[in-house]
Design a protein that fits this description.
By secondary structure, the chain is an all-alpha fold. It contains 16 helices and no strands. α5 runs antiparallel to α8. The radius of gyration is 22 Å and the shape is globular.
Length: about 400
């Protein structure tokens, strides 16, 4: 089914806001200076608390908002993001900041999953891969641009960083005008065929396995991201400016690979998932033994490219394995896995460090990832190929009917 430019662009524009939760991280010291009576722990809570409310909304929202048209739940989420940007400007209190961050998490939770499920409902299989890749890329680009804009505004006054969230206003207007109202109810004849199809193809084991793999892999990868600067300096072959450049270039590579996801999925198919896991594992292993900054940076770029495809791949795989009645719930589990891994990442490598020490912590992470790869390969042979072949047989049968 072909969709016009404005429908695609209005849906994808919402992704610009999806990566916006962390834009205040760099201004935490400035915020702390303006609230000397508030502990640093409470100030740092402002950075993480949107993820908590986002997770709650993601887990409960699918059931609560089932009958609400997705267009309106997305618009409500966009409106809450805009409100979260205005509140700290109107009221310069810690309570207002805390409330604004809670509202931000709720807003992000209202549209994060809906934008994914709408991709599956509106677009053909060929277009879905491209749209999921574009969504991931725009999330990264949006996060990066909003950080730059927000930090520039904070140079004028500390709380002006929150004005970056008012970009939600033009995005909301654009989405309101150009995205159509979608009827949640399916045509009865289509539903009858789909129910027949899904009785044999829905496989919740694939969904659970995908979510677990993504959570554990991202837990370790995010931990590596946090620790790699200290690790390189500890080994004595890098400095903060070089590491900053490495992270900036990795971000650009991540965006480029996300845009190319559709073509990569067409070319490599199911092998892309296991390939990405392998690349992350071998990259961390090489970094562990590296004593050369150029080698470490090169491997880090390759690892970032592999991680860039994991998000869209996880969504695509879960969508393929899900019954349509619980597709939205299952894709929300993927988002929860990514968010939970981000929240808990400082503890993932910290536990490994207790067993391995600083010098070998990446080795421990690589070993765990290779174990996950082994489990994934075995599971894929048992479950995922059977699911695919069953779908092909049923599709042929339905077409013949």
């Amino acid at each position: 089914m072909k969709k016009g430019f404005f429908i695609k662009s209005s849906l994808l524009s919402v992704a610009i806001l999806s990566g916006s939760a962390g834009i205040i991280n760099a201004t935490i010291p400035k915020i702390s200076e303006n609230f000397p009576d508030i502990s640093m722990t409470s100030i740092e809570l402002l950075s993480t608390i949107p993820s908590i409310t986002l997770l709650i909304v993601m887990l409960l929202g699918e059931a609560m908002l089932k009958k609400v048209p997705k267009k309106y739940s997305i618009l409500a989420g966009i409106a809450l993001v805009a409100i979260s940007g205005v509140l700290p400007i109107m009221f310069e209190t810690y309570l207002a900041l805390l409330l604004s961050r809670l509202i931000l998490g709720i807003g992000l939770g209202l549209f994060s999953n809906s934008t994914v499920t709408l991709v599956t409902e509106l677009f053909s299989k060929e277009e879905q891969g491209k749209m999921l890749g574009y969504r991931a890329a725009l999330t990264s680009i949006g996060g990066a641009v909003l950080v730059i804009v927000g930090n520039s505004l904070s140079a004028i006054r500390w709380n002006y960083i929150f004005l970056a969230y008012t970009v939600a206003i033009p995005i909301g207007i654009y989405f309101l005008i150009f995205f159509p109202n979608i009827n949640n109810e399916k045509d009865s004849s289509k539903k009858e065929k789909q129910d027949k199809f899904e009785k044999s193809t829905g496989n919740q084991r694939v969904v659970i396995m995908t979510v677990v793999i993504v959570f554990l892999l991202m837990l370790l990868y995010n931990g590596v991201n946090v620790k790699i600067a200290g690790f390189v300096e500890y080994k004595g072959y890098g400095n903060s400016s070089g590491i900053a450049i490495m992270f900036a270039l990795a971000g650009i590579i991540t965006m480029a690979v996300s845009f190319a996801f559709g073509k990569l999925k067409e070319k490599f198919g199911d092998k892309l998932f296991t390939g990405a896991i392998f690349i992350v594992g071998i990259s961390i292993l090489i970094v562990n033994f590296s004593n050369n900054f150029i080698l470490t940076a090169g491997v880090f770029f390759i690892m970032s490219a592999a991680v860039a495809v994991l998000g869209p791949l996880a969504f695509a795989r879960v969508i393929e394995a899900s019954k349509s009645s619980i597709q939205g719930l299952n894709t929300s589990f993927v988002i929860v896995a990514f968010q939970a891994a981000n929240l808990l990442s400082p503890y993932g490598l910290a536990i490994l460090m207790r067993w391995t020490g600083l010098e070998s912590m990446f080795l421990g992470a690589a070993i765990v990832i290779f174990l996950l790869l082994g489990v994934e390969i075995i599971f894929e042979r048992i479950e995922f190929r059977n699911l695919k072949s069953t779908k092909e047989e049923l599709s042929t049968g339905i077409i013949n009917e």
